[in-house]
Q: What sequence folds into this?
């Protein structure tokens, strides 16, 4: 009988953990902590320790978490609130909540949404995207101002997806895309009139799949950011007005055609006489073949270089190696490999291909989606995005907790990379974003001349553990923010490349 009761309690606690994590993903932290503490305090065992550790992770100062710890340790405390919470979140209620979030034969109730805060124009805005469920198949995204006021809403039906086998995957993709659409629109100033009270907000009905105009993490520019090819015009040589040349005399013709003859040499007009024995024969005159130079297709301007290398590289042809030994030679930069990257003309388009995993960075033109493990450059700083390790703060078998600093339940951190790949400064996100700069930021480098005070920000755009994404935004910095590219990437006039510590600006010419 005791064994059966223990098995039942284990199943209930497993359900409680799943429901609590779903609620946390939706931002309902209070309800999640109630569930975790109510069922953690049911017995002082390993399952209870797991639930309590999760509750303390998200609410270390929560009264219910403290009460659950006291009860499990056998301390005298008022635990009536725990009994009330357990009655509120009974096994039947937990089972019902789980069923509502699981796929059924007719679909599912609703997908977990995306929620995050965005700092813009010195204010904090909140973007929330939710799925209304298969009975009302549409996705709604709200933009909230301070106090919960809705400024703008997007609504999009996904009824066309209902019969697809990959319905869940498609809906998640549409939710993520619509969330990005709202984020980009805010960052591009499309809602400034609404924020300032000069324009009405309201609901906007969208059709078709979302198409957020944002650069992908690999550096591929979209149609919006790509500049037209051949904007730069080839400078025309100055025109020189020439007068008709005077007709040369026969003597001048002979002398000009054979510079070996003295200047006063002259021959009478008429047919040439055969050479005499005392007069050497005139050598045959040969004209060297004309050298045809390939047309100039692009230029690379060195914005920042080292040593005695050229400050301008002209691209004539179809393919070029960039490196210490390539056609585009970068000298005296110890971070540049002999064959670092390849520039290739594919028709009128110029692409850059990284070689052998050597890092090549492209200056951002708009907010860019990146992943954990990606690297970017701000000022002189090379920074890698890392995931926070899985929590390992549960009790031991006594149970006793490891004494530690306060922590924040966030999902990423930034790590400065020193030469040789050695990690330098590290900062963990306390909220959903981290800012980098010279001062007044989360990660400060006060002696970096190339950094602006508030240089760039990286934000966690929400979602569940497996599908959340990060957005990197340059905050109008002087030197720009560069993102590493990993695949062949097209270039436009005005693009800036960072290879080693050498900066190059691209100029495409008409061809």
A:
């Amino acid at each position: 009988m005791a064994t059966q009761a223990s098995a039942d309690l284990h199943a209930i606690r497993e359900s409680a953990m799943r429901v609590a994590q779903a609620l946390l993903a939706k931002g309902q932290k209070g309800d999640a902590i109630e569930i975790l503490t109510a069922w953690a305090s049911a017995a002082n065992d390993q399952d209870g320790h797991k639930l309590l550790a999760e509750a303390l992770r998200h609410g270390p100062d929560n009264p219910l978490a403290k009460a659950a710890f006291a009860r499990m340790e056998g301390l005298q405390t008022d635990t009536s609130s725990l009994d009330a919470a357990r009655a509120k979140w009974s096994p039947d209620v937990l089972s019902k909540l789980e069923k509502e979030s699981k796929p059924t034969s007719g679909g599912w109730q609703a997908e977990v949404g995306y929620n995050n805060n965005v700092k813009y124009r010195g204010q904090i805005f909140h973007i929330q995207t939710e799925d209304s469920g298969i009975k009302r198949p549409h996705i709604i995204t709200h933009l909230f101002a301070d106090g919960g006021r809705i400024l703008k809403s997007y609504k999009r039906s996904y009824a066309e997806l209902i019969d697809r086998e990959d319905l869940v995957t498609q809906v998640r993709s549409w939710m993520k895309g619509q969330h990005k659409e709202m984020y980009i629109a805010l960052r591009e100033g499309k809602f400034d009139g609404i924020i300032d009270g000069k324009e009405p907000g309201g609901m906007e009905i969208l059709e078709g799949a979302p198409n957020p105009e944002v650069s992908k993490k690999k550096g591929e520019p979209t149609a919006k950011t790509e500049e037209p090819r051949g904007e730069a015009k080839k400078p025309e040589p100055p025109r020189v007005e020439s007068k008709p040349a005077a007709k040369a005399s026969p003597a001048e013709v002979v002398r000009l055609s054979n510079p070996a003859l003295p200047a006063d040499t002259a021959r009478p007009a008429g047919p040439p006489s055969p050479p005499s024995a005392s007069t050497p024969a005139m050598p045959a005159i040969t004209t060297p073949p004309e050298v045809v130079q390939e047309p100039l297709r692009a230029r690379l301007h060195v914005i920042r270089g080292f040593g005695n290398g050229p400050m301008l590289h002209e691209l004539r042809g179809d393919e070029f190696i960039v490196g210490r030994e390539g056609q585009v030679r970068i000298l005296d930069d110890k971070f540049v490999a002999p064959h670092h990257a390849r520039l290739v003309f594919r028709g009128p388009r110029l692409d850059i291909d990284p070689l052998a995993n050597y890092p090549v960075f492209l200056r951002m033109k708009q907010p860019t989606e990146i992943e954990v493990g990606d690297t970017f450059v701000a000022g002189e700083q090379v920074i890698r995005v890392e995931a926070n390790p899985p929590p390992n703060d549960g009790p031991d078998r006594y149970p006793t907790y490891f004494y530690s600093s306060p922590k924040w339940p966030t999902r990423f951190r930034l790590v400065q990379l020193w030469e040789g790949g050695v990690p330098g400064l590290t900062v963990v996100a306390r909220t959903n974003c981290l800012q980098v700069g010279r001062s007044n930021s989360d990660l400060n480098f006060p002696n970096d001349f190339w950094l602006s005070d508030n240089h760039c920000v990286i934000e966690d755009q929400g979602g569940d553990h497996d599908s959340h994404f990060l957005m990197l935004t340059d905050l109008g910095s002087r030197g720009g923010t560069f993102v590493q590219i990993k695949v062949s990437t097209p270039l436009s006039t005005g693009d800036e490349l960072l290879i080693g510590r050498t900066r190059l600006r691209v100029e495409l010419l008409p061809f």
Summary: Confidence is low (pLDDT under 50) at residues 103-109, 217-279. The chain is about 20% helix and 25% strand. Residues 114-206 form one domain.
